[in-house]
Write a structure and sequence with these properties.
alpha/beta; 11 strands; disordered C terminus; binds manganese (II) ion
Length: 348
């Protein structure tokens, strides 16, 4: 359960947030575990923004940074140690527990205030100041808005970071939530110095061989039953092709791209015995975040994640049954899915 503060946990307007930022002199920024393009791009974009406002800023991630994001200016500044600062800013985390920091270090020198900026439907008002906008296509869009309201000129480095965040979190401007405003932001970012072709080359055309081989293994396992498709990789298969956990990112998007499929799940074994990691995808009508939350995970309506306990075969059967029932026309996922009977751990 999230911890709720009695008075201060209300949502804050963008201009009030700018005032809060102005009043602090040092910041530490982090985002969720297993950080992706939006987590890293938004964190570094916000770092550039705050530095333009004359602030001292650290960015902390204890998990590995995907190599496809190494090109972002400021990447080399990311540290694994949580420093003392006036304010900690959590990007797309629903709790401090979900963030990519060392909890012991955080508690040894806690910041004076906490700020939470999120666009997940599962977002929670856990911080002193919370700005949660589930309509935002990416947290990168929210940081962009912050820069505009703060009156800070978008530097080429900031533009690259925010463009990368928006590009990756909208599935290259394809997912629901991509609007005219998203393209207007992208246009401004390109005018501010981003080169879309260069970013695409870095983000999408620099895959490791192991990632593409792992995709091949996963695609060879695809099964389809009614409107549900699923696939998996075992630890042994990951080892065989030399794949890391990060190499599994994006596999689920291939499963939902099959004609007639309304819901998809990609499952992988983890180092923890009997802990299976699930990536859920759906078309617009089905809300998989409801299902993920029931198993202790969360995310977006059409893209969510959670972990479940059991063997690969057991978990596969359970989630395929749940997704099949949720896909029945007229039944909302919230009613179609029963509460979990097995403990699950939060890894999303
Ligand atoms: Mn995001």
């Amino acid at each position: 359960m999230a911890v709720f503060f009695p008075v201060m946990n209300r949502q804050i307007s963008i201009s009030a947030l700018v005032d809060v930022l102005q009043a602090q002199s040092s910041f530490v920024i982090t985002s969720h575990i297993r950080p992706d393009g939006d987590a890293i791009g938004s964190a570094l974009g916000l770092m550039h923004l705050l530095e333009a406002m004359g602030k001292r800023v650290s960015v902390v991630f204890i998990d590995p940074i995907p190599p496809s994001l190494d090109f972002l200016v400021g990447r080399e500044r990311i540290s694994r140690t949580f420093p003392a600062a006036d304010a900690a800013i959590f990007l797309e985390c629903d709790s401090i527990e979900r963030s990519c920091i060392d909890r012991g270090e955080y508690e040894a020198s806690p910041p004076r205030i906490t700020i939470n900026i999120d666009h997940h439907r599962s977002g929670r008002e856990f911080a002193d100041f919370n700005w949660i906008d589930p309509e935002a296509a990416a947290v990168g869009c929210m940081i962009y808005e912050l820069a505009i309201v703060a009156g800070v000129e978008i530097s080429p480095a900031m533009a690259d970071c925010l463009y990368t965040a928006i590009l990756t979190d909208t599935g290259s401007f394809n997912y629901p939530g991509t609007t005219a405003a998203t393209f207007a932001m992208a246009e401004h970012l390109v005018r501010s110095g981003t080169d879309p072709h260069r970013i695409a080359a870095e983000v999408y055309f620099s895959n490791s061989a192991s990632k593409v081989r792992l995709l091949g293994v996963a695609l060879s396992h695809i099964q389809i039953e009614g409107a549900v498709s699923w696939s998996h990789v075992t630890l042994e298969e990951m080892e065989r092709v030399g794949a890391s956990v990060e190499d599994c990112e994006g596999v689920a998007n291939h499963l939902i791209g099959i004609e007639g499929v309304e819901a998809a799940v990609f499952l992988r074994e983890t180092q923890e015995p009997d802990q299976i990691r699930l990536s859920l995808r759906s078309r617009r009508t089905l809300d998989v975040s409801v299902i993920a939350e029931r198993f202790g995970g969360g995310g977006h309506k059409t893209a969510s994640g959670c972990s479940m306990e059991g063997t690969l075969a057991e978990v596969t059967r359970r989630i395929v049954d749940d997704l099949s029932r949720a896909c029945v026309p007229g039944i909302h996922a919230a009613e179609a899915v029963e509460a979990p009977t097995l403990p699950s751990i939060l890894l999303a």
